[in-house]
Amino acid sequence: MAKPIKVTFIRNGKEETTETELGTQVFSFMPEFNINGNRLVAAKVNNELCSLDSSLEYDCKVEPVYNNTKEGMSVYRRSLCLLLAAAAHRINPKARLLVGNSICYGYYYTFDGETIEAEALKKEMQKLVSQDLKIKTSVISWSQAAELFEKLNLKETRKQLNHSCTSKIMINTIDDFSDLYFGPLVLSTGALQVFDLIKYQDGLLLRFPKTKTPNQLPPFKDESKLFSLFKQYKEWGKRVNVTTAASLNDMIANRKINDFIDIAETHQQKLISEIASQIVKSKKVRVVLIAGPSSSGKTTSAKKIGLELQAMGYVPKVISLDNYYVSHDRTPLDENGKPDYECLEALDIELLNQNLVDLFAGKEVNIPSYDFHRGTSFFEDKNKMTLAENEILIMEGIHGLNPALTPKVPDELKFKIYLSALTQLNLDDHNRVSTSDNRLIRRIVRDNNFRGKPAEGTIAMWPSVQRGEELHIFPFHDNADAILNTALDYELSVLRVYAAPLLRRVNPTQPEYSEAQRLLRFLENFATIAPTAVPPRSIIREFIGGSAFKY
Fold first, then answer.
1. Using the 8-state DSSP alphabet, how is residue 506 labeled?
2. 154 — phi, psi (to 5°)?
3. d(CA 151, CA 159)
């Protein structure tokens, strides 16, 4: 008889320890499936996210994961995507469903070839939910997986197998439909009751709840500017024949990646040049305001736009918004009583606006500096500045698109640019590359290279970063005069070289282990590219180092 294993589990907020048989399923130790309206969707076993029907194989600590947490909502959304694919397969197995970008708490889908109406597909999803079918996770051989995905018409999923030639492949299954395993899912379709499926543009939008309100859908707000950018970028990807991780991996395997790197960098530089032309064309613009979420490449983009303006006969001058922080005793506090440097009130808005108005009036101003160690601002003669007719200010920071940042500056003098690292790549037919994951991996690499911070440190502070973006950046992107996509479709293959070793150092005793493992699984979909292939002025150099720009 096998020796029993020791399990420490959380019940009603308290730890309890017991012994159980090897192979006991996780949900045996779970508290109620619903607590205060929040549904149990997964568990952490020694800080690794697992499905509730996983078997326990060693001494461990088991914690419940509910749908009102980031990881719980990730499980819910991933399960919802499988539900949609299974419903589409039920209605018409020949209809090839393809995932696109995220928009307003939803994922955009299109059909390649035969289509299915949104209402019919929604009804089939609801039928699957009412049947409460078990969502199975199983392991099959590589040959079985290849045959299965060919039969299901999952072309990119099948192609990706060529770059993951392991002897066994994990899959998830609902009824007679299966897809590649990318992470734990809910136990059964009955848990997936909160969603909507609507017609949007040329496709469908699968809508899901916010993490904080998992039992209701948020109001729909059309993000037409971002969607238009994604659509253009997706069409470009089709033209160059790189739309998935599998097609990128094919280029790497066939030694054609250097040409694609040149194409991707040239395409992005062309977009930057077009934005610079817009700025010059207006003739009245005196300040360019650049904003974007963390690790969207604001610093390099500002420098590249500055170079383009110089090529057109203008002289860019850079003012950092960090210089306008108020003194420490005036800095607002967040909900935890700590200084909130991300809120607008942390900046001296009055001084900033007075400096800009004076500069545009031809006056000399003294730009402040800020001592972060002492928490005070100071002035130096070397920072005195004037603005000639052929000179344009460039300012980048999280509040750049917020009208409350520059209320005294007439709109015709401002040109606002929003940056988004919006990759058009998918992992395969039904699994997308998250913009947030792309930026997080950039940040992990940069924080380690230039700040000595381990991966777990960046992962731990990422939720706080995202909260700041939700409050101070995303609500204002529609104010932009131009949107620049800073993603480069080959970058994850480069970033993997740096990020993977850092993520492997996060150990199972650390709370960040689960996220580190998820990111590692994600990066394994990309073959590596040597960092030496990255051009010296590429945005990627802002994160990996070796840039021709000085930061």
1. S
2. -95, 80
3. 13
| Separation between Cα atoms, residue 530 and residue 252, nearest integer Å | 10
Are 286 and 357 a contacting pair, CB within 8 Å? no
Query: Which residues have C-beta within 8 Å of that of residue 370, sequence separation ≥ 6?
Result: 322, 323, 324, 325, 376, 377, 378
Query: What is the spatial distance between Cα 158 and Cα 155, in angstroms, rounded to a whole number?
Result: 5
Q: Say if CB 316 and CB 392 are below 8 A apart.
A: yes
Mean per-residue pLDDT, 269-297? 95
Q: Map tokens 């109406």 to a residue.
A: 117
| 8 Å CB contact between 168 and 141 | yes
Tokens at residue 9, please?
Answer: 């589990």
**Which pLDDT belongs to residue 500?**
98
CB 107 within 8 A of CB 205: yes
Q: Residue 363 to residues 180, 354, 359, 512: CA-CA distances in angstroms? A: 63, 11, 5, 52
Compute how many other C-beta atoms are within 10 angstroms of the C-beta atom of residue 431: 24
Percent of the chain with pLDDT over 90: 80
Helices (H), 344-486: 349-360, 435-451, 455-472
Q: Give me the residue label for tokens 């948020």.
A: 218
38 bridge partner residues: 35
Helix spans in 110-244 (H): 118-131, 142-151, 155-161, 224-239
Q: What is the pLDDT of residues 418-434, one digit of tens each?
A: 999 988 999 998 999 99
Contacts 24+ apart (CB under 8 A), 267-274: 267/236, 268/485, 268/486, 268/488, 268/539, 269/304, 271/484, 271/485, 272/301, 272/304, 272/305, 272/308, 272/484, 273/308
Tokens read off for 410: 């007439």
Residues with Cβ within 8 Å of 212's Cβ and at least 6 positions away in sequence, in order, are 68
Q: What is the pLDDT of residues 297-321, one digit of tens each?
A: 999 999 999 999 999 999 999 888 8
pLDDT at residue 119 tops 60: yes
Q: What does the pLDDT read at residue 33?
A: 64
Distances (CA, A) of 518 to 47, 515, 524: 12, 5, 10
Alpha helices (H) in 361-490, listed in sequence order: 435-451, 455-472
Q: How far apart are CA 197 and CA 169, in angstroms?
A: 30
